[in-house]
Specification:
mainly alpha; two-stranded antiparallel ribbon; 4 helices; 6% strand
Length: 65
């Protein structure tokens, strides 16, 4: 499954920022996100995110590598 930014955004819907990577993973699991999406979150380079935009930027950088 190819993960899109929209998939990622949907997976973390409802989380309060700032948030840690572990909190993002927990929220994705609470939202019944696919294991592939959870794995993408775990692979994000940063440990703490100030906003959903920051998550999207980190996802974009990771996807380009």
């Amino acid at each position: 499954m190819a993960v899109s930014a929209a998939d990622l955004e949907h997976a973390i819907k409802g989380i309060d920022f700032p948030a840690s990577k572990d909190e993002l993973v927990e929220q994705a699991n609470n939202n019944n996100a696919d294991d592939t999406i959870v794995a993408v979150i775990k692979d994000l380079p940063k440990q703490r995110f100030k906003s959903p935009i920051e998550v999207s930027k980190a996802f974009g950088k990771e996807k380009r590598q």
